[in-house]
């Protein structure tokens, strides 16, 4: 008998930004009601799993939580991330052929440093799952395809210099929508150059346009990259009824995309048309993952003629596809030239990050070690004034799992050196090689290790 598709529901009854906020528990309750009414969950093709908790250590493999993981993260975050881990375990144990975590809170706007909620996200569920399976199962190459209408800027930032994680995001053009990023020039750092592929779509892009991009760009790159695991960051706000965006994707379009993409694990992200989109889109994704016929799945107000793109729209997409294919296929040449010119140096970038949900600004100074032997380690100096009026100045060092010994030792020395500098309130070290995570309170002189 064919293996079932694993499904987890977690509506997070005890977590809400506000009672009337678009990101609220009703997002998933309408979906759950429709799936059970239609009998989908009673089919042998589907196996429902119960949520489980991720640990603080799982979170710290990915994030520096300011001031501490205990103060920043609540149980709802751990359950949402833990649900993704549960399905990943079931998939890699051979119990299911694929899995869909229909959970909230979402995560793809959460970056390496997390001071507060931004874009409705506190921690990055997909990244936590990816680092979990890399550590537990030794998986190396992962592809993330982000289908949310908003650019997955958090996931991009986390894996921006990782050549073994391919991040592909198609989204409404950042000039017209939050978070204002996701342009074709955002292609990666260091050895990760060319494994970030952004596809900014014009507003009102329909099924035809999105599937053109899928067929002619996304799927060919995936075939060449040959990932060990394919993850769909499954935002559903590209739907034509979504109140926070301006796109024209349908439930049929989402289901067909999933059938072509064949993700191993899908994790819900955005989607805020609670009654008129989410129940149909989620059902379509589950049916496609389970190999069920979804040809009769349509929204009550569906009209194909209303959702078409003109020739100029499609001409733009063709040029976009050509540009990004060229970027991907020529990435190694660019990387080799960059390292030849900048051997044993640091790449430095300064940026300001806006937390829209809690209305605070973070200033960051980023340094990436350009090592000829590995992808290098990162040093992030971050400052933000929290809602309680306290300003935190923190230093963060991230050692990737494929770091060479010289960079590993050098990064640990940076961590010790930062502890002696009074300008920091907290200093953190993320050591994925040893799977140990440190936080040092400078004023108190206290270190905590996970």
Automatic annotation (TrEMBL):
Gene Ontology biological-process annotations: epigenetic regulation of gene expression
A Pfam family hit: Hist_deacetyl
InterPro entries given in the database record: HDACs, His_deacetylse_dom, His_deacetylse_dom_sf, Ureohydrolase_dom_sf
GO molecular function annotation: histone deacetylase activity
SUPFAM superfamilies given in the database record: Arginase/deacetylase (SSF52768)
Domain Histone deacetylase: 69-276
PANTHER family in alphabetical order: HISTONE DEACETYLASE HDAC1, HISTONE DEACETYLASE HDAC1-RELATED
Family: Belongs to the histone deacetylase family.
Protein name: Acetoin utilization deacetylase AcuC
Species of the source: Thermosyntropha lipolytica DSM 11003
